[in-house]
Amino acid sequence: MTSSQPSKKQDLPPTAWAVLGLLSFPGERTGYELKKWADSSLRFFYWSPAISQIYAELRRLEERGYAASTRSGPEETRTKRRYGITEAGRAALADWARDTAEAGPPVLKHGLLLRIWLGHLAEPERLRTMVTDHMERTRGELAAVREAMAHAAGVPEWSFPTLALRWSERQHLAELELAEALLADLAELVTAGFPDIPSPSDTSGPSGAGGSAGVPRQATGDAPTPG
Hints:
- This protein has 227 residues and is mainly alpha-helical.
- Helix content is 51%, strand content 4%.
- It is elongated, with a radius of gyration of 25 Å.
């Protein structure tokens, strides 16, 4: 196994630490195998980098002496390069994993909610379809999480990944509950009368200023929430 000389610890992007984390488990793996493992573990609670990103990070890790690779011999029909973590890499990863100050808050980018936020531009039934489609996808993801948990069950080296998968199972169950509540909210909004949104140029209420008592307030230039 060959690698460059270990260098001083340098800042790395989270994806690099995630790839190095995949290498921290027993055995050596190809970039393709790392991608498959990321798809069956990391994507349920973080994200799964593209195969091109994985190879880019592997090169970066090798340059820093955190990973090393070996090329397969002539006995294999296709030449493969397998990667493993070095002692310097394991020490750096352990330091990073213990640094809770760098964990940061969770980041939520919910594509469905962005469209619900723009619901005044869509029909109520279309919004309901979006939510039900999202629930169907979530059920599929939940099944995949449970399949990964079953695969990891009983393997001592995968005890902590199993905890992360168990959290992901709960998160998907909570997502289904939130979606059910969102459907109820949409139904209530439709029952109350789906609001007609005035044109952007019409910012005055019936009284010519901001509306009068008993008349729903119309939006002006202010944001709908404080901030």
